[in-house]
Design a protein that fits this description.
single chain, alpha+beta, 7-stranded antiparallel β-sheet, 7 strands, about 35% helix, globular
Length: about 170
């Protein structure tokens, strides 16, 4: 993964912060649902059931419906992958835990198309983000060809970064 520095406008920063808040909210709801399970109870809902529940919640709550559904569903998918990794005895990853505002700020976008990244100059590029539009980033090295997804994170100092994910050969 290659990490690049993002330079969103103030309006885009608000959208990115909302994406982070929605992804964190959905992740924490999934953690809460799975934290009440113990031996003898019926299993906690899986990814597909949680997506159905998300659709119902988005219909009820306008603030959640205003966000990107892709970001929210990807948070559920990431939780399902973390839960699967936790249950694998060969994997030393711990139980998925709560995400805290200000510390765990980030979201993931999948199904990235080739036209979603473009180079503007020698040092500047743009990436397309849902609800935010074209967001500029520092083109410090070549963007990996064949990138299928990217993760956007905000560090504790308030700087935004993007990391493009490529499936290794």
């Amino acid at each position: 993964m290659s990490r690049y520095r993002l330079f969103p406008t103030p309006a885009q920063q608000v959208v990115l912060q909302n994406h982070c808040a929605h992804a964190r909210y959905v992740w924490n709801l999934a953690v809460e649902q799975h934290s009440h399970w113990h031996l003898g109870r019926t299993s906690a809902p899986g990814y597909l059931e949680q997506c159905r529940q998300l659709t119902a919640v988005r219909a009820e709550h306008e603030w959640l419906a205003a966000g990107s559904q892709m970001v929210q569903q990807q948070a559920l998918r990431d939780f399902a992958q973390a839960k699967t990794a936790f249950l694998d005895p060969q994997n030393p990853i711990g139980r998925p835990s709560w995400r805290k505002a200000g510390r765990d700020e980030g979201f993931r976008i999948v199904a990235m198309k080739p036209g979603h990244v473009r180079r503007l100059s020698r040092k500047t590029g743009e990436v397309w983000m849902p609800k935010a539009g074209w967001v500029r980033f520092r083109w410090s090295r070549a963007v990996p060809s064949g990138a299928k997804s990217y993760r956007v994170k905000m560090d504790p100092a308030g700087r935004w970064h993007i990391a493009f994910a490529v499936i290794p050969e």
